[in-house]
Design a protein that fits this description.
The complex is a heterodimer of chains A (268) and B (108). Chain A is an alpha/beta fold and 268 residues long. Chain A is built from 9 helices and 10 strands. In chain A, the strands form 2 sheets. Chain A has a 7-stranded parallel beta sheet with strand order 6-5-7-4-8-9-10, with helices on both faces. Chain A is globular and about 75 Å long. By secondary structure, chain B is α+β, with helices and mostly antiparallel strands. Chain B has one domain: hypothetical protein PF0899 fold. In chain B, strands 2-1-6 form a 3-stranded mixed beta sheet, with helices on one face. Chain B is elongated, with a radius of gyration of 17 Å. Classes of the chains: A alpha/beta (268), B alpha+beta (108). At the A-B interface, strand 3, helix 6 and helix 7 of A face helix 1, strand 5 and strand 6 of B. Strand 3 of chain A pairs antiparallel with strand 6 of chain B, so a sheet runs across the interface.
Amino acid sequence: MCTHCGCSSDKAILTEFESDHHRHHHLQAEPKTLHLQQALLAENDDIANQNRTGFQTQGITCINLMGTPGAGKTALLEATLSAFHNDLPSIAVLEGDQQTLNDAKRVQKAGGQVVQINTGTGCHLDADLVKTGLEKLAPKSGSLIFIENVGNLVCPALFDLGESHRIAMMAVTDGNDKPEKYPHLFSRCELVIINKADLMEYVDFDLSTVQQAIAQLNPHAEVLLLSTKTLHGFDQWRNWLITATSTENKYSTGHIDSIKTSATLTYD
Amino acid sequence: MHELSIVNALLKHVQPYLNRKIKCIKIEVGSMSCIDPERLIGCFDWVKATVGLNDTQLIIDHHPAKASCQQCQQVFTLTQLGQPCPCGSYDYNLLSGQQLTLTEIEFA
């Protein structure tokens, strides 16, 4: 490849120097077709890896929390901050929403360090937005970072942010068929949280149907039914977080590697 | 609509070659990539004039996904997520099908 302009020519080149710039010509015609193997998301993945390296350097555990709008992602963070502040590392949050500072205000009120990222028309967070957000957030060494992604079951699944754990979240009010309808997100996570367990008796929600769908999409994913209102299931949630932030697990990236290498869907 | 983000990423990859007239761009899209090919072409057609690619065509090579079963070890074609291996197991590794790769630029 020509190192000057990045074109594919390996032929001799002629370079003319002018006053403050120079230009070059290839002595032989460029090929008409250029064959490449360039991953389109390589730039995002490079930045995600920079984020990941930063987390490892600072001993930070990072969780990408994705899910339906209204699943209770922010409520989960509020309840987690309130219930476990003695059991977990210091919690910092990057909030992703198209507009408003509402979620950041709620997290701040609950005692979390927080930065709001407004994506405007954007439907997901990408690694570069997270990198910028992290510069503002300046998390403490050893902390636990939650990235609350834009409420959306489609687009966030595709973008590695540098996280070490992925959670997909829905609520019993979302209905039984969300995992089947949105398989990419539910097949690329380690944990599925089903919130609003306290409303189970009021809605037509069949837990076993949802568990079966998740088992078919992602046999190694854990499923956790909880309520951010009554704190039902929070003992298991605390145990999951303690395991996720433990030294041996805080940097596990099995599911992330699967996205980037396109080679495996193994969840360690 | 994440397809627009993918088109923007594609335009960055094509940017070094904009000094020549580009007839078509080929990309490989795996069937498990979470990308809608028609929407991707729609997004490309929507923004291509902004970088002078008015006459450039985006061609998509569809690649089916292959998976390797953890139970019976056979390699099979996966047409959708949540589909079992022919042996009935849902425990398999995806071998291919998530790629989003720029593979060819043809100049006019």
